[in-house]
UniProtKB/TrEMBL annotation, chain A:
Pathway: Sulfur metabolism; glutathione biosynthesis; glutathione from L-cysteine and L-glutamate: step 1/2. The keyword Transmembrane does not apply. This is Glutamate--cysteine ligase. The lineage of its organism: Eukaryota, Metazoa, Ecdysozoa, Arthropoda, Crustacea. InterPro entries: GCS, Gln_synth/guanido_kin_cat_dom. It comes from Artemia franciscana (Brine shrimp).
Length: 615, 290
């Protein structure tokens, strides 16, 4: 698995970037056509796959009882990356920076193989990665895999504490220095997204109303001595706000699979798309935002709004004059169309019918792609991605040789953040067609992360082995995405799902609970876990592997049935049962300290939590 | 999709019947030739004493897939019901000696074959050394493979007999039909003894995790020390008991089936090794009249 190299070059100003937008798109398209024609028949006989985990570095102060994000990730990264710089071929892990200056991303050095026995190597690899980070931490620092730092963008949430200087983001809450500054990309995206957008963000996250929650939430900022007050009447729920791209300071868990060929990649892309909201609900781990318990358990919609670069015209709030299109979705959102061309006649018909949301695309680009011989669903997919402007452009990368370089294509491709992503082969390497699965929230322990990662890997195997069809209308997938992020979605919501994925000639889209989808509904749907179990039996897998996979499946089964809590509901109950919690929805420094300490203990195994794990 | 009645100058024993059947694969006769018949799912050939039911790859039957999460015995029961449900073909037909369930030959080229791990498992209600060789051989012939990469013999039978029949299993390897041998449902001691005594040692041992929950530590260490694959299965002691056959007979209306029992069954699957994808799965079954 190769990773995009993050340039440390010199980004152009927003004005210059905007001026070059057509240039980037024009050449990006040529670059795509070039790669496509070279690699459309690429075959990769072996499955290679891998996970990506994002960590937060937290500085604990035992006497003050505070837990703040530690802004040392660049220092730590320098040490971590030594291994891969010195021995790129044998590096055990690969490390990359992320948006927050307190975040670090780690992937296995070599991809996992397609031999089912190797599923047993996923968790040890994750455990080793965490140990590796710990080598370079100070004695008061820990690395946690927590999707949402509870007091992100609250006053003095970092170590060292920062002045509220935010020329990049124009944020009232998130200081610039909390963004990774060594890699200009992040600052540039932050600034440019806001510039392009033109108006302020109004990202409102509903506060969870508890017994003593006030009707107005007043945010006071000591360093600015400014009071930002949100006063709302009783009938409207209270909100906490984000006002910039700082939503990218969340951590997530991603899995990427290499497919046998382009057709298989497209099949996986399509079949995994309706699975995204299911996994998002199961991995829900972010109920606390900006120091408050909220009505959402997940980060997806928040980030979606934070990275929304659409102008008012594009959002349909003003008549189109400068901009060309009304664009229905943020560039960070779930997919808008299925793209495969495989399967029975019935499935092909379904795809036509189920692509039922408006997909805005550039007709000229579509024509150019079709004329270059690109298959229509892919052409439409690319023409849709290319509706966006580049958000950052490095001066060193402006002029390219389209036959040899791919940065312009990559620029647009990598700033369309969707629930699943189709990745092209890298010409002249053995890296083939791949699909990235992106909705999961990262879990507290490596056991859980390994469980979900292996489950997803096994889902892809049963989709391919049994030729399953999970397609439902895209509009219903979008509806599922909304529902999956609600507080306690597993208990309270039903999700659209094809309860007859076995037939190539019929389907049955109904609403089922996560429990029914995962564990089955008698006489109705076998359930994803029973399907996976029987696959494991059919492949006569090694006993040792099977036992561990049993543990993983038991965890997921418990989360789905509600017997075990999701990370989000556990965090919420932790807060609410904390001795100093005042039933006012506020998550104070002290509660945050205790929460993060508890999370660390859970990860280390020194604290037991039957509600989360069953033991 | 009809009955192909073959004139009675046909040899009567099952063995030569088999090769005869395979020969007529090449012949295109009348308006329905054997290949054409084999194309469709629920096709039946009646040849004198026996009924031959042709089936496809189990992974291609939606109704079977719906049941894929059930136990192997349930899955097989559903599969058999489905195969027999083409009542038209079977109306008025009955077998006198045998009922064969034969999967359609699986076409794969050399290149693809090397990517697959094709394994088979033999179930016998009454163990018998002749059956061991015959079953695997017939399975290979109907599937069109040269050899099985692994052949496991399910042995929920008395352990003494296992040592007696094992040499036949070794012949399978000698004759190039099987690459490695395995056994399931035996106790650790029995397996260790078999490993010691046999000329060609078993390289696979299967245990039922549902039955024993934890991998027996002695077996695990023995397997590790001797490079033996310790795999899991969830097959019952009796895959196709008489009761099930009677139930199938009743629900499909093929009442004559009540008088038959399982002679042997070979379950096969083809797994794409380096991708972890199942390519094919099915059963070759022989039922015999009581």
């Amino acid at each position: 698995m190769t990773r995009k190299e993050l340039a440390k070059g010199s980004p152009l100003s927003w004005q210059e970037t905007k001026q070059k937008a057509s240039h980037v798109r024009k050449h990006g398209l040529k670059q795509f056509i070039n790669i496509y024609n070279k690699t459309k028949d690429t075959r990769s006989p072996a499955l290679k796959w891998g996970d990506e985990i994002e960590y937060m570095i937290i500085a604990l102060d035992q006497s003050a009882k505070t837990a703040h994000v530690s802004l040392r990730s660049n220092e730590i990264l320098e040490s971590l990356q030594r291994e891969e710089i010195e021995n790129p071929e044998t590096a055990r892990f690969l490390w990359r920076p992320e948006y927050g200056a307190y975040m670090v991303e780690g992937t296995p050095g070599k991809p996992y193989s397609g031999v089912l026995k190797d599923l047993l190597t996923v968790e040890p690899c994750m455990i080793q990665r965490r140990k590796e980070i710990q080598k370079y931490l100070k004695s008061n620092e820990i690395a946690v895999t927590l999707t949402s730092y509870p007091r992100l963008a609250c006053p003095f949430f970092s170590e060292p504490p920062l002045p509220q200087e935010s020329s990049s983001s124009k944020s009232t809450f998130f200081p610039d220095m909390a963004i990774n500054h060594m890699y200009p990309r992040y600052r540039a995206i932050t600034f440019n997204t806001r510039e392009r957008r033109g108006d302020d963000y109004h990202i409102r996250i509903p506060v969870m109303k508890d017994q003593l929650t006030r009707n107005s939430i007043t945010e006071v900022f000591e360093f600015e001595e400014e009071e930002v007050e949100e006063t709302l009447t009783e009938s409207i729920p209270n909100f906490v706000c984000y006002d910039s791209v700082d939503g990218m300071g969340y951590c997530c868990l991603q899995v990427t699979f290499q497919a046998f060929n382009m057709d298989e990649a497209r099949t996986l892309y399509d079949q995994l798309a309706p699975i995204c909201p299911i996994l998002l609900a199961l991995t829900a781990a972010s109920p606390v935002h900006r120091g408050f318990l909220t009505g959402t358990d997940c980060r997806w919609n928040i980030i979606s709004q934070c990275v929304d670069c659409r102008t008012k015209e594009e959002r349909g709030l003003e008549p189109l004059s400068r901009d060309r299109f009304i664009i229905p979705k943020s560039r960070y959102d779930s997919i808008s169309a299925y793209i495969s061309n495989e399967g029975s006649r019935y499935v092909k018909l379904l795809i036509l019918m189920y692509n039922d949301v408006p997909v805005v695309l550039n007709d000229h680009y579509l024509l150019e792609l079709l004329e270059a011989g690109v298959e229509e669903p892919i052409a439409r997919h690319i023409a849709h991605l290319f509706v966006r402007d580049p958000l950052v452009l490095f001066s060193e990368k402006v002029d390219q040789e389209d036959e040899k370089e791919i940065d312009h294509f990559d620029n647009i491709q990598s700033t369309n953040w969707q629930t699943v992503r189709l990745k092209l082969p890298l010409p002249d390497t053995d890296v083939g067609w791949r699909v990235e699965f992106r909705p999961c929230e990262v879990q507290i322990t490596d056991f859980e992360n390994a469980a979900f990662v292996c489950f997803i890997a096994l889902l892809t195997r049963i989709i391919l082995s049994y030729k399953l069809n999970f397609l439902i209308p895209i509009s219903k997938v979008d509806e599922n995405m909304k529902r999956s992020q609600e507080k306690d979605a597993i208990k309270n919501c039903k999700f659209y799902f094809n309860s007859n994925p076995f037939d190539s000639d019929s389907d049955e889209v109904t609403e089922m609970t996560i429990n029914e989808i995962i564990n089955g509904k008698d006489g109705y749907f076998s359930g994803l876990i029973p399907l996976v179990e029987s696959f494991l039996n059919a492949t006569e897998i090694e006993a040792e592997t099977h036992q561990r996979l049993h543990d993983y499946l038991r965890l997921i089964s418990g989360r789905a049935s509600g017997e075990l809590q999701t990370a989000a509901s556990w965090i919420r109950s932790f807060v609410r049962s904390h001795p100093s919690y005042k039933f006012d929805s506020q998550v104070t420094e002290e509660i945050t300290y205790d929460l993060i300490t508890a999370i660390n203990q859970l990860e280390q195994g020194t604290r037991k939590e039957p509600l989360l794990y069953g033991y | 999709m009809g009955k192909l009645q073959i004139p009675c100058c046909i040899p009567q024993t099952s063995d030569t019947m088999w090769s005869f059947l395979l020969c007529i694969k090449q012949v295109s006769g009348k308006q329905t030739n054997i290949n054409h018949i084999k194309e469709s799912q629920h096709t039946v050939i009646v040849v004198k004493m026996s009924v031959y039911l042709f089936t496809e790859n189990m992974l291609d039957y939606p109704e079977v897939k719906k049941n894929v999460s059930h136990t192997p015995e349930k899955e097989l029961e559903e599969f058999l019901k489905l195969t027999l449900q083409s009542k038209q073909e079977l109306d008025g037909l009955k077998a006198e000696h045998y009922v064969h369930l034969i999967p359609k030959a699986i076409k794969i080229n050399e290149e693809e074959r090397s990517t697959l791990k094709i394994s088979a498992k033999l179930f016998m209600n009454v163990p018998n050394e002749m059956k061991i060789y015959k079953a695997f051989n017939e399975a290979l012939q109907s599937l069109g493979f040269e050899k099985f990469d692994a052949a496991v013999v399910a042995w929920p039978h008395p352990k003494e007999q296992l040592f007696e029949v094992w040499p036949v299993a070794e012949n399978l390897v000698d004759d190039g039909l099987v690459s490695c041998l395995g056994v399931s449902d035996v106790e650790t001691q029995t397996f260790v003894l078999l490993h010691e005594k046999s000329r060609l040692k078993p390289e696979i041992v299967q245990i039922n995790l549902e039955a024993c929950c934890v991998v027996p530590p002695e077996l695990a260490s023995f397997a590790r020390a001797n490079d033996i694959q310790l795999l899991t299965h969830n097959d019952p002691k009796e895959l196709l008991p008489k009761k099930t056959i009677e139930e199938i007979a009743k629900s499909t209306g093929c009442n004559w089936l009540k008088e038959f029992s399982l002679d042997w069954a070979v379950r096969y699957q083809a797994l794409v090794k380096c991708r972890g994808v199942l390519k094919a799965k099915g059963y070759v079954i022989k039922l015999v009249k009581d």
